[in-house]
């Protein structure tokens, strides 16, 4: 029996993460030996977001509340990694995995942790070049002005060292802004 057929039978013909039945395919959970036990059956949406973490949509992955409890180790490992990437430590802390499964899940996090995901006050992912709107008057220390609520900051940059800040120009001055005071424009 082919791996895809085996995964289709195991999943009941739906995505093992979100339950969708659209565009299903096999995704190996690295490091993998290519077997069905180390692969999952996922929809196109889940696969695209797993392969491109900067496009990850947290609302789509609300389904992880269910899939994190899967008895299939590969599904639990992928749920663990996605919850970590989304910063959902509250759900990660609730998960129980055998030691070997947890070490497998941790083994795939080293490269994923390098991609810092920056979110605005509403949880929307921010990328370099985006525009944001300030949602609260902010005193800018050392510059002698207040960044007013409603000001649009265009063409932001994402600093590599800080996960909850962006860099942009307000009143011609380049400043760091905390993401909790911003929303994507």
Structure description:
This is PhnA domain protein. The protein has 185 residues and is an alpha+beta fold. The chain folds into 2 domains: 110 residues, no CATH class; 67 residues, Roll (SH3 type barrels), CATH 2.30.30. It is built from 7 helices and 11 strands. The chain has a 3-stranded antiparallel sheet with strand order 8-5-11, with no helix packed on it. It has a two-stranded antiparallel sheet with strand order 1-2. A two-stranded antiparallel ribbon has the order 3-4. The protein is elongated, with a radius of gyration of 20 Å. It starts with a helix and ends with a strand. The model has no long low-confidence stretch (mean pLDDT 89).
H/E series, N to C? HEEHHHHHHEEEEEEEEE
Question: What's the domain count?
Answer: 2
Return Rg in Å: 20 Å
First-residue to last-residue Cα separation:
50 Å
**What is the SS-derived class?**
alpha+beta
Total DSSP helices:
7
Low-confidence stretches: none
Percent of residues in helices comes to 25-40%
What spatial order of strands do you see in the largest sheet?
8-5-11
Mean pLDDT: 89
What is the overall shape?
Answer: elongated
**Major sheet attributes:** 3 strands, antiparallel
Number of strands: 11
Strand content: 15-25%
What's this model, at a glance?
The protein is α+β, with helices and mostly antiparallel strands and 185 residues long.
